[in-house]
Amino acid sequence: MLDGWKILVVLLVLSLTDYYFLTKLKNYANIAFSLYCQRSIALPEICRFFGIVVRMFYDDHNPPHIHVEYQRNKAVFDLRGNVSRGDLKSRTAVRLVREWIDLRTKLEFRGGHAASSQ
After folding, report:
1. Is the Cβ–Cβ distance between 105 and 66 less than 8 Å?
2. Interacting residues of 77 by C-beta distance below 8 A, sequence separation 6+
3. Can you tell me the distance from the alpha carbon of 59 to that of 7, in angstroms, rounded to the nearest whole number?
4. Helix (H, G, I), strand (E, B), or coil: what is residue 88?
5. What DSSP line would sit under 33-81, residue for residue?
6. pLDDT band at 117 (very low <50, low <70, confident <90, very high)
7. For residue 6, is pLDDT > 80?
8. Per residue in 48-107, pLDDT tens?
9. What are phi and psi of 31, to 5 degrees?
């Protein structure tokens, strides 16, 4: 009978230590996620359309790119429309972002060409 109680106590202690470990792990995961979210919030928002949020930081690493968020899915696009990281999980959203990038690069080129000809 005593051996059964010892086993029960050992199992109880092990379950408590596992619970403590999992709680710590969950806390660290929440901290890491909140830091990641703060990083994405800190990026200046350039445009918002159809639920798609486009952000860009002027002093970010090369190559130049934009951060896009759609329905809690995040992706990073280069300025040619290629996805370099992440996935929006919506072909329509990816197509709209690529069209937005094409429109912006055409407007920038047209504006730069007009400014250099004056």
Report:
1. no
2. 65, 66, 68, 83, 84, 97, 98, 101
3. 59
4. coil
5. HHHHHHHHHHSPEEEEETTEEEE--TTPPSSPEEEEEETTEEEEEETTS
6. very low
7. no
8. 999 999 998 777 778 888 999 999 999 999 989 999 999 999 999 999 999 999 998 887
9. -65, -45
Residue pLDDT, tens place only, 17-47: 666 655 665 665 565 555 555 555 567 888 9
Residue 78 in tokens: 């280069």
Nearest to 85 by CA among 106, 108, 60, 105: 60
Largest separation between any pair of C-alpha atoms in the chain: 97
What Cα–Cα distance (Å) separates residue 30 from each residue in 35, 41, 48?
Answer: 9, 16, 27
Query: Between the CA of residue 83 and those of 36, 74, 91, 116, what are the distances in Å?
Result: 19, 10, 12, 31
pLDDT at 76: 93
**Tokens at residue 107, please?**
């407007």
DSSP for residue 104: H
Residue 54 φ/ψ region, left for φ over 0, alpha for ψ in the -120 to 50 degree band, beta for the rest: beta
Instruction: Compute the distance between CA of residue 83 and CA of residue 98 in angstroms, rounded to an integer.
Output: 10
